[in-house]
Structures are given as C-alpha cells and as structure tokens.
Amino acid sequence: MGVGAGPIRVVVAKPGLDGHDRGAKVIARALRDAGMEVIYTGLHQTPEQVVDTALQEDADAIGLSILSGAHMTLFARVIELLKERDAADIQVFGGGIIPEEDIAPLKEMGVAEIFTPGATTTAIVEWVRENVRQTTGA
C-alpha cells in the first residue's frame, strides 16, 4: 500500500477509549506543516476503523496516540489487521504514555518506533521522513 509518488501519507489515530487528543493533533499539524498528507481519524477509533482508513487513504504510515494504558492490545491488533489485509508495508509508529519496559516488546511485534512524552515534533517529523518511504514531491 501507499508506495507511490507525492507526499508521505500518514493516518494519525486515537484508538480505544482515550479521550485526550491534544498530542495527536499537535503531531498531525507538525506532519502536515512538514509537507505530509495527514488524515486524522478523531477519537475512539477501533483498530479496524484505523486500518480501514489507512487502506482507503493509501497511507504509508499509521501513527497511533495512546494514553489509556491499552497500548499492548491496540498496537498488536492494528499490526495483526495490517498483516491479515496484506498491508504490512504500512509502517506503524506511535506515542503516548508507554512504559519503557513495553517499548522493546512493541518493536518486536512490528511497531517501527515509539515516542514518549518529551519527544519533539521535530524529532517525529525527521523520523517519519527518514523511515517512511521517500517523498518525491514534499
């Protein structure tokens, strides 16, 4: 999926019951301001809705913001659904309140990167530019 010309396309999502979206909106705006196409899904998305959106939008990456403590389950389900739908080439990254001891297991399951509180928008934008497909127009 998403291996095309033009700007990097990123779905930014708030899966689960977490109702705090300020950080996700800040990241979405930073990615957009950096020339990427951003699709923000809004609050309370299921993993199925997130993956459906990524497929419909031909996304290159999915950025998940999780503050609820359900990160192990939600990331795992998104990764599983991408594999089931033959879309494992869509990179998944995320951030939020994620304990240090959970980062390695998340990466082992296929999460490309985790950004914890204090990560700068510049660092996130640079990571996406360097690790998601190269842009041809942005």
Low-confidence stretches are: none
| Overall 3D shape | globular
Number of DSSP strand runs = 5
Beta-strand portion reads 15-25%
Distance between the termini: 19 Å
Order of helices and strands: EHEHEHEHEH
Average pLDDT value? 93
Strand order of the largest sheet: 2-1-3-4-5
Helix share, percent: 40-55%
Tally of contiguous helical segments: 5
Describe this structure in words.
The protein has 138 residues and is of the alpha/beta class. The protein contains five helices and five strands, in the order E-H-E-H-E-H-E-H-E-H. A five-stranded parallel β-sheet has the order 2-1-3-4-5, sandwiched between helices. Helix 3 links the parallel strand 3 and strand 4. The radius of gyration is 13 Å and the shape is globular.
Describe this structure in a few short sentences:
By secondary structure, this protein is of the alpha/beta class.
Q: What keyword list fits this structure?
A:
single chain, about 140 residues, alpha/beta, 5 helices, about 15% strand
Write the layout of secondary structure elements.
Blueprint (H helix, E strand, L loop, with lengths): L8 E5 L8 H12 L3 E4 L6 H10 L4 E6 L4 H14 L6 E6 L3 H10 L3 E3 L5 H11 L7
Parallel strand pairs: 1-2, 1-3, 3-4, 4-5
Helix pairs in contact: 1-5, 2-3, 3-4
